[in-house]
Every structure is written in C-alpha cells, then in structure tokens.
Amino acid sequence: MITGKNYVGFTPSAKGSKTYKTFNPQLNAENEDVFTEATSEEINEAVALASKAFRTYSKISGTEKALFLNTIAEEILALDTLIETYCKESGLPEGRAQGERNRTIGQLRAFAELVAEGSWVEASIDTAQPERQPVPKPDVRKLNIGLGPVVVFGASNFPLAYSTAGGDTAAALAAGCPVIVKSHPMHAGTGALVASAVVKAAKKTNMPDGVFSNLNSSGIEVGQTLVKHPAVKAVGFTGSIRAGRALYNLASEREEPIPVFAEMGSINPVVMLPKALAETGSSWAKTYANSITLGTGQFCTNPGLLFGVKGDDLTQFINVLAKEIVNIEPTCMLHPNIKSAYQKNKDRALNQDHISIVANYDKEVQINYAKQAVITVEGTTFLENTTLHQEVFGPFSMVVQCENLEQLKTIIYKLEGQLTGTILASDGELEAHLDVMNAVQNRVGRLIFNGVPTGVEVCPSMVHGGPYPASSDSRFTAVGTQSIKRWVRPFCFQDWPLKLLPLELQNENPLGILRLVNNKQTSAKI
Amino acid sequence: MITGKNYVGFTPSAKGSKTYKTFNPQLNAENEDVFTEATSEEINEAVALASKAFRTYSKISGTEKALFLNTIAEEILALDTLIETYCKESGLPEGRAQGERNRTIGQLRAFAELVAEGSWVEASIDTAQPERQPVPKPDVRKLNIGLGPVVVFGASNFPLAYSTAGGDTAAALAAGCPVIVKSHPMHAGTGALVASAVVKAAKKTNMPDGVFSNLNSSGIEVGQTLVKHPAVKAVGFTGSIRAGRALYNLASEREEPIPVFAEMGSINPVVMLPKALAETGSSWAKTYANSITLGTGQFCTNPGLLFGVKGDDLTQFINVLAKEIVNIEPTCMLHPNIKSAYQKNKDRALNQDHISIVANYDKEVQINYAKQAVITVEGTTFLENTTLHQEVFGPFSMVVQCENLEQLKTIIYKLEGQLTGTILASDGELEAHLDVMNAVQNRVGRLIFNGVPTGVEVCPSMVHGGPYPASSDSRFTAVGTQSIKRWVRPFCFQDWPLKLLPLELQNENPLGILRLVNNKQTSAKI
Fold first, then answer.
1. B119 shares contact with chain A (CB less than 8 Å)
2. What is the mean pLDDT of each successive set of 10 residues along chain A, which is 526 residues long?
3. Can you list the residues of chain B whose pLDDT is less than 70?
4. What ranges do the domains of chain B cover?
5. How far away is chain A from the Cα of B493, in angstroms, using its nearest Cα?
6. Does the active-site annotation cover A263?
7. B136 at the A interface (CB within 8 A)?
8. What is the pLDDT of residue B6?
9. Which helix (H) or strand (E) segment is A47 a member of?
10. Does residue A521 contact residue B521 with C-beta atoms inside 8 Å?
11. CB contact under 8 A, B460 and A141
12. Is B109 in CB contact (< 8 Å) with chain A?
C-alpha cells in the first residue's frame, strides 16, 4: 500500500533518484519501504496544480468543503495499516497512535462543521446610504477568503495530528486553500498512507486535482524550494526554532514576502507560589514527574522550567520530584537523531556551572530510550546564564530556586516567549500575587491554573501559540478552529450586484449565518 | 502653541541638536516653526515608558479606553490652529483639511464605541467536562489582548487621518497598546498639535505616562531605531513600497521578529468591459478624469491603470478622458520632493518605448503644482515592460489597450497585489465575464462595481489592504474597526479562578457582550 512515491496532485510520481527509508527506533533498524524524494520538476508541478486548483477550490461551498474534510476523516479511519506504520516509524505506543488518530479525525470534523455552518467567514455588511451628505455612502460587504496555496511542514512529534492531514492542513483546506505537504522524513510511510486517504477523498468528492499534494523529502531542499516558490502564499510549520526561523527568513526575503506560521520551541514555565508549595508541593511533584516524562518529554508543552522561592518547601518538592521521576520507566524517543540531540542538550545543561543534578536516571535502557533528568539552579545563576533558558527537548526539567518573588518576576519578564505558563497556588493565594500572573501572561499564549501544561484541548477557545519564539506570529493559534484565520484574508465588495455576491453576503442570508450588518451582529436577512 | 519639542510620554523634550522645518508648497517657502529631532536617549525613554505603561494600560476597561479616545477627539476639535497648520504644511485646501479632521474624529469615536461595547475581544469559552473519558475536559477561555508598544509612522498624504492620531494610532490605543509616533517630517507641526491633544486627553482621563509619545524625525534613523528596539512589539506604516519594505526587513531581521503592517503602493486597476465602454464610456471618462486628479492624485487608491479591449469604443473613451483631464485645473502637491518624484516617474513613463501620450497638461502652473498626464499602451507592450507596472504617485494614469479579454485576464493575473480593483460593466455584462472578476479578485483587497476607487469609506466592512505590495500582510485591513486585529493576540486561560478572569470571560457576562460559549454565539450568561 505504501508505494514510496510522491503525490503530485492526484498522481503518484517518483521522477527522482534520491531515495530514503524511515527508521524504527524501538528495533533500532530501518523500515523496509523506500521513498523517492521529490524533484524540482515535481515541486513545480505540484505548485502549478495547486494554483490552478485554487481558482475553483476557493469558490466551492462550505457544504462541499465539509464533505471533503469528513471524507478525509473516513478514509483515514479506513486505512488498515496506519497504526502499525505509525508505531514503527515513531517508537510511540499503539494507544498514543490511536489517540492521535482520534484527534486528527476530530480536527477534520470540527473544521467540516465550521465551514458547513459558515459564520467563520466573518461576513460584514454596511448597506448604502445614497442620500448621505456630503457624499453618498456606498454598499460595502466583506468576508474572509483563502490566501492561495499553502505549504505544510509536518511535525516530527505528531505524525498524524500535526502532519499530513493534521491541524494546519485541515485549517487550510477549510479556508479554501490547496495544500502541499512537505512530508516529514521520520514518518514518510504514515504520511504516505494519510496522503492516499486525502487523495481518495478528494476524488470521491470531486475536488480539483492539485487541491492536495504530498512531497517526500529527506533534507531541507524540498522545503526551501517550496517556501521560495512565487505561487506559494503561506506556510505552516511545527518544529524547532532553528528550522522555523530559517523558513521564516526565507519567506520574508522573497520578492513577495508571505506569512509563515511556525509553532516552535517552548519551555513552558511553571510558577509554584509559596503556600501551594507548602500545602501541596509533594502531590504536585508526583504530578509533574509524570508531566515531564509524558510521551518521552516530546510535547511542545512539556514543562521544562519550574520556579519557586528557595526554602524547605521547595527543597521538599525537589526531593519528591527527584524520587518520583527516577521511578518512571524510560520510554523510546522518536528517532536516533532526536535521542542524540536530547543527550547532547541534556549533557550541556548538566555541565553548566553552579547547577545541581537532582535526578538522573542511570539504569541500563534500550537504545533510543531517553533517560530522564532534573537539575536545579539558583535564580541568580539562571538570570546570568542564558544557556539554561534553552529548550532540552525530551524528559528533562529544571527547578529554579528564586531568592524571593521579586526575583521570580524579574526572571519571568526576561524569558523568551512561551506557549504556556502555569501557576500553582493555594486557595486565595493568586489574588495576592496578581503581579506574578501579569508577568507570566506577558510571556505566554496560555495560562494554566493548578494543572499541567501537557495536554492541549482542541476547542475554539484554545490558544496554541505565543510570543516569539513560541510562534512566529503570536496573533494566531495553531490549534482549534480559530487557526483557520492564519490562511485567510478579508475581501471586500463595493456596490457589487447583489445576485453576484457570494451567498454569505447576499441580502437573504441564504446560509443563515451570523453577520455584522450595519454594525449589529445578526442572523437576520436584510 | 507648537514648541518643536518631542513628547516623550507626557514630557516635552528637546535634547538633540538636529533641527528642521516644514515646508509650505503653496508659498514654496519654509514654515517658521523649528522642530528638534529625537535623540537615541529620547527614543529609549519613550519606549521604556511605553513598556511600563503597557502593564497597566493593557488592563484598563473598555469604558476607560473609550473615554480616552473620545477625549482625544474633543481635544483635536479644540485645537484652534490645526486647520491652518495642516494647510500650510501640505498645500491641501481647507475643505480637505476639515474633511480629514472629521474622518480622524470619526475614527477615534468608532474605536471608542467598539471598545466600550466590548465584543471586539472575540471572547470564547469552553466550559469544563470533568467526567469526560478518557481525560477530563478543562475549562478554557480566550480573548484578544494587546501586543505591547506599537510604533506608528504617519503618512505624508494624510496628515491627520493616517498620522499622529489617525487610524493606526486609534486602533492600537483601542487594543490596549501604547503608541509611539514617528512624526512625519512634512507635517511635523500638524503632528505636534495633534500630539498635544492626545497628551492632554491622556492626562485628563488618567492614562499612564508613556501611553503615547511623539518623536520628531527628519531622516530615517529615528524610525529605524524604533523598529529595532526589543521592547517595540509591532509597527504600523503608510507610505512607499521602498520605505515600507525596508521597515518590514528590519523587523523580520530582529532577534524577535515583530509584525509590520505596511500599507504601501497600489495602482488600482480598472477594467472596462466592452458593453460598458460602448454604452457609457464617455461618461466614465469624465468621472475618471476627476478621480485621477482628485487630491492631486495623491491617494493610495488613485486609479493608475485602465484596461479595455482595443477598438473604437476604447479610442473614444481615451479621447474624452484626454480632453476632460486637461481641462481640470492643476493643484498643489504635498511637498517639492513629492512633486519632483512625480515629475521623474511621469517622465520615465512618458519616455518608455511604444507608448502614446494621450494628455499632458502643458500650460504654465505654479511651482509645486502637478501637471496631469495620461498615456496609452498596447497590452503586449504592457506585459513585456514591467517598468510600466510601477506606480506614478500623482495625477497620472495609463490606458492599456488589450487585444481581447483573454489577454486582459492574463495581464491582470500578472499584476502585483493591489488595494483595489474596479470593474465597469453594463447591465448583465459582468455575469458573462466572471472569469475577469475572478482574476481581479485574486490581485486585490477590494472590488468596486461601476464606481471609482478613490474614496475609502470608514466602516466595519471596509478592507484597505491587499496582496503584497498593496500591504505587507493581506490578512489585515488598515481602515475600519477591524484594523484593531493587527495589534492583538489571542490569550487563553485554562481552569482559571472565575473571579480572577477578565470581565469579558466571567460567567455572568457583566459586559453583556457577544461570546462563543461551547461553540455557540450568545450574549447570555453561563
């Protein structure tokens, strides 16, 4: 079923000579399927098809797009070797694979519901006032339309939910934008299977050829060529700061710069207020031992930084965390490269001056399994040594022992942007420390009370994004239906013949959507 | 009343030694007031104050922000030398000055109304489901918050409505962002007066010092320093492609890239369909002679490109346009520099191969007045010579005579992004040419039917922006209340104590705003 070919639109294609295989980190061996890297010619074909498809796809109805998205979901569910392929390309357990497939399906269906309902276009109508003095007021009507072909880079740590038909793709297709996926080389087989499901769904629902392409790539060239292509109009990326920034730079240096939404690194600071530490510190330590090691610490919301004020309660927290975390069985990382990067970054942290190693799992583990570690450091050292601010992607965390809450706030204000911030507080304690809350809010996209940052609920109110470098543009979220806004622009019709307007802007409001009419929200007709 | 000093927050300041004056293009003489350019120290002070102000200003209520914005409007109306200063710094007539003041006041009040009402934050609430399997659903709530200090560059061609307290400033202040204005050197006095009104209003309404600063600048250094300052979080600009792109590049090269919304060049193509040309060509020619010369052609929506299919009707249109346009009295340009740029760009166009000069005003005019011109060119020549695609800022336009509608469409698809596109069509004619409409829509932010692009209605449904280089990010508009979205980011609270949530997210919905609650739009409480 996995042919190893690209999908250039609906057409399987393998014109190139460069091939590669994926890797099973559990077995520490290459998988069998051979993938053929996309050539420049195939890239150009895919983009040309996408541009052509955009002309029609951007105009089809929400109902038709919904059918397409729902059919993708069905076709993904119908793939019989998906879970097995996912596991052998990621080292992740079957339960996680199934959970992620559910999330992927759920996202596709949520976007289907969004576009079928139709209000997402934010229709706005100001009717004419021909008698207005000194000049007549024209009839002005606006709605959101797709930007054009979107390139999506899959995430290594979410082979399904943030890759081939994941959040970025679902949002872009919902917005009316054709998608060209730069397949993630670590899970090219999973990607190929999902791509086959998308293509099947596109054909079944009569979508134009080019609405979706899937291009294999083991290096950086395919991605670079795509981002530089003049007919590509936006980019979605999930991954490292280095790679995300490189793509952002390429896109901003184009003759026509294009938006890049890159969801990048985050160390997700957790602030433990004094009473919470005193009253529930040990219980939080157990909870955090699990959060830090969840999914081998390979979540973008992994808690990499824990802040408290120095003292017995924080020492007690550290001791419990240390004891608990080494009792957790190590698990497999996604790929030997990710494992070796973890090892390197962890070693760099462990070798910094003035840090103490609190926990460092030291029993024998299988190859490609990650040994968890926790270090602790004084607030002053942390402030001075920005190397300690860098993400260690994996089951690693650092407890920063601040002199007092004043120093804690100072440190928070100096942190880079983050996806999440968490505050642990006892009853009524937060009220007395709103300044701490303000400091954290300034640096993050999501603020969590008495919980853990891992686990990102897919719902309209979610914000997954934050000040740079958590994301390249904090004005958008990468998760939830509102992420569709990354791929649309407002478009305005002035004095346009009413019957030629899109349905969303017609007087009769045939779709029954919520609209802003003469500055009032209403579902009524005009 | 004009001191020539900067406003560093509330404090008039003139630490520098570099001074400059503005210029009266009608009298062709310098104005008297002397302005002191801001120093690096003053820039740093203004940004530090803005950062500090942001911590409180971003949290104040919509009612308080509305009072501030409305008071700015009142204080601007109370400035007794504003109109006179505007005229002597721009060469524009008094009627225009008054109209633009009304527009400025209107914008401030529209934003006041927007934030007083409160639904603009797009509040979204997903309530918890503690019993959900396999994991409980958290309580997740979202609203829009300000990005941080915003730098606003005033526009040369709108000394009031798109400068000191113009659209960008009003939108940023409404969003909860302090504003630092890089004053436009051509109308520094107008800017200083408006700045004094903003400062007065800020003090009257107890806004924090630093919520607004106004920095004088005659060169590019002040603007560059501001855009590179790490504490500046976004930039608004209106002006040339060259300057806008330079700022965009600076902002994307920062360690932390920041969004730049630059509203730049546009030549605003007008497509005349065959029947419209045949039936109403002469009448449109008269209308367009006026639109091309309105405000000495110094509007970003000036129609610089007129397309039709070659033939007698188009020839007739050109003849009438030529005759009408030379009968219009030339008017003054904003500044000798703008006049000389117009002359240079016009001459460049007039000297291209294979063009015909249709009209070229040749009577004596006052210095700094612009002589209007119209040229015509064949479609094939236009396609081949991209110099002809460049904006000639001033009372200039070009008629492109296409072989047929197929060539017309080809040309449209090759145009750079534009603010507006216009289609002139007879009854029922557009229906037969939806492909032409699609081509224009692809390249513009606003599509006008049987009208002129000049005249930008300020209303919620307006889109002033478009594919690059019309604007640097087509996902936003620069005009209308929706332009507030440029300066905000979504922010999410998870499991947050209800009483500590912003009013917009509290169960009782104390502001009575429209919210998305569990995926349904409602103004009800929870």
1. yes
2. 95 98 98 98 98 97 98 98 98 97 98 98 97 94 98 96 98 98 98 98 98 97 98 97 97 98 94 98 98 96 97 98 97 97 97 96 96 98 94 97 97 96 97 95 97 94 97 96 97 97 98 96 96
3. none
4. 24-264+476-486, 269-449
5. 5
6. yes
7. no
8. 98
9. helix A40-57
10. yes
11. no
12. no
How close does chain B come to A165, measured CA to CA in Å? 23
pLDDT of amino acid B352: 97
CA distance B304 to B321: 13
Round to the nearest angstrom and report the end-to-end CA distance of chain A.
53
How far away is chain A from the Cα of B5, in angstroms, using its nearest Cα? 32
pLDDT at position B336? 96
User: Which residue stretches of A415-479 are H helix?
Assistant: 434-443
B418 and B391 in contact (C-beta within 8 Å)? no
Q: How far apart are CA A164 and CA A172, in angstroms?
A: 12
Q: How far is B485 from chain A (nearest CA, A)?
A: 8
**Interchain contact A521–B (C-beta under 8 A):** yes
Tell me whether residues A474 and B489 touch, CB distance under 8 A.
yes
CATH of domain A45-264+476-486: 3.40.605.10
How far apart (Å, rounded) are the C-alpha atoms in residues B192 and B41?
20
CA distance A183 to A193: 11
Would an 8 Å CB–CB cutoff place A449 in contact with chain B? yes
Q: How many CB atoms lie within 10 A of CB A519?
A: 16
Cβ of B463 within 8 Å of Cβ of A141? The answer is no
Architecture of domain A269-449: 3-Layer(aba) Sandwich (3.40)
- Give the E-state strand segments of A388-464 in sequence order: 396-402, 418-424, 444-449
Interface check for B311 against chain A (CB to CB < 8 A): the answer is no
pTM metric for this prediction: 0.97
Q: Tell me what pLDDT residue A265 has.
A: 81
Count Cβ atoms below 10 Å from residue A94 Cβ, excluding itself: 11
b/e B304-333 (16+ beta carbons within 10 angstroms → b): bbbbbbbeebbbebbebbbebbbeeebbbb
Contact call for residues B160 and B308 (beta carbons, < 8 A): no
* CATH superfamily assigned to domain B24-264+476-486: Aldehyde Dehydrogenase; Chain A, domain 1 (3.40.605.10)
ipTM summary value: 0.96
260-279 in chain B: CB under 8 A from chain A: none
Chain-chain contact of A55 with B438 (C-beta, under 8 angstroms): yes
